[in-house]
């Protein structure tokens, strides 16, 4: 038995209290037991360890059948019962499988960080509200209560952000349900109502005047290049910042997948961007970054574009390109407005909607068409015509 305990102690991962780690190690050993003898031995070990935790009886009495029943010090008896429930698998900590769940996810670092934060907030809230942090204790009623009070432990109070955390918990419980670790997903349908956006409050494209002000203002050289690529591709910020020299070969950009995209997306390089690409690629190896000015942040949950986004935000505000609606956390114009501007200009140039959707990688209206499968045939030429139909606004001439 001493040798067996030494093996268990060696397997402890160092997280949680010693008793909790020991109980979880025994629970794992019990689940993995392949013979009745092995299982009986582990169960005996759990009973013996629980008896040790309870300590010697402090008194004795009789149960309803008149049988002798020892009485233990209440706190130690509670600890022993908690230990036995954990070791026998009757109660499982809510984060017990979370690390394994995260390992199986194929998501962005930011999404992974959201999942970790959602669990952190739930554990903090359970501790504050004195709710046992076990899967069996998180009921639908508890989930709704947590939803109502999530803003008191989270770093944001906006419903959209809070729903993001609730969604990550729901996906974890859904994964647990598939593995038969829980009977139901208690987070299903647990979501906060979003404020109704009026038509005039929605985020919008830049106007031509705003694009002209942005492109003619005192931005840094790297930001000038970044804005022009965004305006003439309709691409999101992060795929542009993540471009490497090899991704700009053959007259096309190859942008990494975003949102629901499965594969990298090809976008023809606009003639007005060729000088930028040539200048930034000159003398560099294929794996070199096109925008080395913005390296990956040191914190693991941030995208490479994090600092570029902040750089653009400060610049945009400094030149007065801003429109904030009271009660909204974001301006109606932001870097994504370049994407909206490109789509608007392509549509005004009579380009087919499904081609525009394919070029910018928009799932709605694309009808299953992806530029990744285009060859040198007419489809890539359609995409090139779409891109080249968009032109940056010209500086007005004075009479």
UniProtKB/TrEMBL annotation:
The keyword Electron transport does not apply. Coiled coil: none annotated. SUPFAM superfamilies: DNA breaking-rejoining enzymes. Residues 201-388 form the Tyr recombinase domain. Keywords: DNA integration, DNA recombination, DNA-binding. Transmembrane segments: none annotated. The keyword Cell membrane does not apply. It comes from the Bacteria. PROSITE patterns: TYR_RECOMBINASE (PS51898). Belongs to the 'phage' integrase family. This is Integrase.
């Amino acid at each position: 038995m001493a040798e067996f305990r030494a093996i268990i102690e060696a397997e402890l991962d160092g997280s949680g209290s010693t008793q909790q780690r020991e109980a979880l190690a025994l629970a794992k050993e019990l689940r993995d037991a392949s013979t009745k003898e092995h299982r009986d031995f582990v169960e005996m070990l759990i009973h013996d360890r629980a008896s040790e935790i309870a300590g010697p009886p402090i008194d004795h009495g009789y149960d309803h059948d008149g049988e002798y029943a020892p009485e233990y010090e209440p706190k130690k008896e509670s600890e022993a019962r908690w230990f036995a429930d954990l070791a026998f698998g009757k109660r499982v900590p809510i984060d017990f499988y979370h690390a394994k769940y995260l390992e199986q996810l194929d998501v962005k670092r930011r999404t992974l960080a959201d999942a970790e934060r959602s669990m952190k907030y739930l554990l903090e809230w359970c501790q504050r509200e004195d709710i046992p942090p076990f899967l069996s204790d998180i009921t639908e009623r508890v989930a709704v209560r947590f939803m109502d009070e999530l803003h008191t432990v989270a770093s944001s109070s906006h419903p959209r952000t809070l729903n993001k955390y609730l969604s990550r918990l729901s996906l974890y419980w859904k994964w647990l349900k598939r593995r038969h670790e829980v009977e139901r997903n208690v987070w299903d349908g647990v979501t906060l109502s979003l404020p109704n956006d009026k038509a005039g409050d929605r985020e919008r494209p830049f106007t031509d005047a705003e694009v002209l002000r942005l492109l003619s203002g005192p931005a840094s050289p790297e930001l000038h290049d970044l804005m022009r690529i965004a305006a003439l591709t309709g691409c999101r910020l992060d795929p542009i910042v993540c471009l490497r020299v090899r991704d700009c070969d053959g007259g096309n950009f190859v942008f990494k997948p975003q949102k629901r995209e499965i594969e990298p997306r090809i976008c023809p390089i606009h003639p007005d961007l060729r000088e930028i690409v040539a200048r930034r690629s000159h003398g560099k190896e294929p794996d070199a970054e096109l925008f080395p000015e913005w390296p990956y942040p040191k914190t693991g949950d941030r995208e490479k574009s994090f600092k570029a986004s902040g750089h653009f935000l400060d610049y945009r505000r400094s030149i007065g390109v801003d429109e904030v609606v009271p009660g909204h956390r974001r301006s109606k114009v932001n870097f994504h407005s370049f994407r909206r501007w490109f789509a608007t200009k392509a549509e005004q140039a009579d380009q087919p909607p499904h081609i525009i959707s394919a070029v910018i990688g928009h799932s709605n209206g694309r009808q299953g068409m992806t530029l990744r499968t285009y060859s040198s045939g007419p489809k890539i030429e359609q995409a090139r015509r779409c891109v080249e139909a968009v032109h940056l606004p010209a500086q007005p001439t004075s009479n």
